[in-house]
């Protein structure tokens, strides 16, 4: 079946080309690197900086103002904990009792679905016995987020038109704008679970009673509380019919100002009413605070945006920033005493975008350098430019296929997951090298006239079974990693997944895409001289245009075009032309490596970095080439002196155990 699939694609190269275009396009749309895809849709893999290794937990939060931790523990934490223990899938429950509030952390088994556990908790809370908790105490479920959900912090600051800090806003004003405008607007952004306000003063009506006047009028504190509660509501009565018209009778009592509270009647006697302003002082004041938000030594007001569970953090931050741009025009401004205008502005305080982009940038650069080094090694060791291009094309296509698999299986792209691709690159290219060298060997043995499709199929079918067995052996060795649970599993399973998918993708590309394109590249062409001359001139012109627009890869096109022209004019032989092409390609790759790597430092001249990288690369590859040339002699000597040679690894093993 495997060989039938290979043969079908070799004979139907258009199908292989369409498959390649489909995989490349699909992979580009799922790429997490935020590439400009033009007309292609953008549906990237979820991106974060680090993997989420937290527990599968939910939080039940309960407030009981003014109570001691012991009261909270006895009357809220303990009863709730014992009631929540019966929820299916619960592994353990941890609780914390603080002054005025209780926090209960419910840890579920890893296989329990996140939102299913939330619905079970809500069911349990709704079915609690009536007198289990103190009157007026209502436990609430925490946001549908994880410990890594805090993706964006911001502050509200007054700025002038040049972006300089102006001030002019008190903390109460800022907190009110945050609570009643900014918070609600950002909560509407897609993927946001919660926007928590921090800092400033929460404005509230405060009634400071006079104990002496309360004693004189024989008024208790509960009477004042009852009067305030009953006055702050609307009451509906029946209807009145006057002149055949029906009127609704309502009592409007919602408090809208301090005067409404001051004039609230506490009691009435002998046609005289006692109002709150007679026995207390009513004013606006700040709610009791448990902490502040400090920025560079100054107290500020801000908020924390929490992303929803399994949401794409990068996408959520983008949505939040777009929402900030929308509400920017609605934020108030005021004129200061010095004549400047202070415009209230949302200023990012912590933005995970930079961390994510730096992480992706580091991995992107690492993958690019690995691919360049691999291409360089292939060009020099294989010593066939066509085969080198064929093998090098395997890497980017296989990486794009990994992005498709990550999107399909909801694997987040983070520093650990993408490292799996970097680790697998060395193994990925081995299959292309084995296959290409076997094809070249068969072509060298073939007669002058040969069927390229038959030779490529024969060469591929010879090694396809061995390649498949080797890759499956590596994949099976990762099965223990997939069985890991807890924090270890969340940390290492994505790496094992991406490495496995990279190997599978490289296997598919090597066995099904390289053979048909090898049949195209290695096919003998009897082109007319005029057509070849036009193609080479077009290649040179294209290279010059690329150089004008700043693309140094144009050097390769110009060189290839000139060399092909010289070969066409019989000035250069085919062997010399191939050597020149390989040398130019290797030098260009070394230049790119020196540009990205800069081993001697950014301050040093690029020429020195180029020389340093060239020395390192060519010394190492020269050593490999020397070993390859003398490998036959070394192998013959080891076979003739088996005991002497085997004593070397034996001594190394014994020495290793002794340490």
TrEMBL record:
Q: Which InterPro entries match?
A: AcrB_DN_DC_subdom, Acrflvin-R
Q: Which residues cross the membrane?
A: 366-383, 390-409, 415-435, 455-482, 502-522, 534-563, 575-594, 606-627, 639-657
Q: Which residues form the signal peptide?
A: none
Q: Which Pfam families match?
A: ACR_tran
Q: Which UniProt keywords apply?
A: Membrane, Transmembrane, Transmembrane helix
Protein's UniProt name: Cu(I)/Ag(I) efflux system membrane protein CusA/SilA
